[in-house]
Amino acid sequence: MFQNSAARLLVPTIRSAMQSRCQSVVSGPPTQHVSTAEKVILGGGFCAASLFIPAWVLYHIRDYKGEK
């Protein structure tokens, strides 16, 4: 019984919060230009960061297997 009354009280609040949050999205062209060099540097950094751990594991695979 308490769950039904709590749900009735909370649902309108949640819906209004979601509507106001979704209405704040602004679509359109970007306001600041990002240079090609910055895109390349950031893309390379993300690629290096995402490949670092797999490369580390492959380099140390013998240690993980117990072979020396």
Automatic annotation (TrEMBL):
Its main location: mitochondrion. Keywords: Membrane, Mitochondrion, Mitochondrion inner membrane, Transit peptide, Transmembrane, Transmembrane helix. The chain crosses the membrane at residues 40-59. GO terms for biological process: mitochondrial electron transport, cytochrome c to oxygen. InterPro entries: Cyt_c_oxidase_su8, Cyt_c_oxidase_su8_sf. It comes from the Eukaryota. Pathway: Energy metabolism; oxidative phosphorylation. One of its GO terms (cellular component) is mitochondrial inner membrane. It is found in: Mitochondrion inner membrane. SUPFAM superfamilies: Mitochondrial cytochrome c oxidase subunit VIIIb (aka IX). It is a single-pass membrane protein. Belongs to the cytochrome c oxidase VIII family. This is Uncharacterized protein LOC108037008. It comes from Drosophila rhopaloa. The gene is LOC108037008.
